[in-house]
Design goal:
The chain is mainly α and 314 residues long. Helix content is 72%, strand content 0%. Mean pLDDT is 80; it is low at 1-27.
């Protein structure tokens, strides 16, 4: 728990002997496909739960409730398991990463959608995360982005843009909301790089509890001062809150951190290129929204880009 984080990029360096890494590497990739697919689906569902949650609560109030509920659940689990909470510098690093990934990202997404940014456009902006995180990871984590990986990122982003281009209508009224989405993009990009650099050995229970509770305290301030704790606890609101807290915050972020511990930031972040299309698919399945030809074409292009990013060696 309190042991220092591994050296920069240590988990990604080849063995000094030059012997190829474990023979079952392809099988390991196949074994992680369910985790990667689950990350995309769970993260996509967060845009839908956010859209529904904003019907009953103001953005920062909804975020504060989501983080606090998830953090308290994990804190209780850590207590049952008799786990000691991190202390000292490790506690500080976890809190900083949690504020960036959780508070800055999700509260900004909620604020942007509340100001009129469509969920598809919100997902598109956050899908720029692969490029921004990779650019940060190169100087800060000394990761390499090969030409093939860069091509995969560009193809994926092109597919994202193509998929949602037909359904995006911009107006001047959306500009403040777009500013919040840009802040959210900065939050997840800086947060995941910070997480990989300083919190590489984070315990998924106690560490995530610290991050969520730190995020809840940060967004509690605007929730109280700017929104006056604006929330309506109805029967329809509770399932949305529980899903966003237990599934989106605990399962989704847990999957993200698990993959970050095993792979480079560029490879993991490329999965987010599939989130807008996955969001559109869930919207079609659950809300009856139609998938147009542009969305289907974009899905194919983004999938190709993501597969290329994951299979090209550095």
């Amino acid at each position: 728990m309190t042991s220092p984080s591994p050296p920069l990029g240590s988990e990604e360096r080849p063995a000094p002997t030059g012997v190829p890494a474990p023979a079952a590497r392809p099988a390991g990739r196949l074994a992680e496909l369910p985790a990667r697919a689950a990350l995309v689906v769970v993260w996509s569902s967060g845009f839908l739960s956010g859209t529904l949650g904003l019907r009953y609560a103001a953005p920062y109030t909804f975020a504060a409730l989501r983080f606090a509920l998830a953090g308290l659940v994990l804190l209780a689990v850590a207590g049952i398991r008799r786990q000691r909470l991190p202390r000292g510098r490790r506690l500080l690093h976890l809190a900083v990463a949690g504020v960036l990934v959780q508070a800055v990202q999700f509260s900004s997404i909620y604020a942007g959608m509340d100001l009129g940014v469509p969920s598809g456009l919100a997902a598109l902006i956050i899908a720029l995360y692969p490029l921004t995180a990779s650019l940060l990871a190169v100087p800060l984590l000394h990761e390499r982005v090969s030409a093939g990986q860069l091509l995969g990122l560009v193809l994926g982003l092109g597919g994202v843009a193509l998929a949602v281009a037909g359904g995006i209508e911009l107006s001047l009224n959306c500009l403040p909301g777009l500013g919040f989405l840009a802040l959210g993009l900065l939050g997840i990009s800086a947060g995941t790089v910070y997480q990989k650099r300083f919190c590489g050995r984070m315990d998924p229970v106690s560490g995530n509890a610290v991050q969520l509770l730190a995020a809840s305290l940060v967004v509690l301030v605007p929730a109280l001062l700017a929104e006056g704790w604006d929330v309506h606890f109805t029967a329809a609101y509770w399932p949305v809150l529980l899903w966003s807290a237990l599934v989106n915050s605990i399962v989704g972020v847990g999957l993200l951190y698990r993959l970050l511990q095993r792979h480079g930031t560029s490879q993991v972040s490329s999965l987010f290129q599939l989130v807008p299309m996955s969001t559109a698919g869930l919207g079609a399945l659950l809300l009856g929204q139609r998938l147009g030809p542009l969305t289907l074409a974009g899905l194919v292009l983004a999938t190709a880009g993501t597969l290329l990013t994951h299979h090209v060696r550095r």
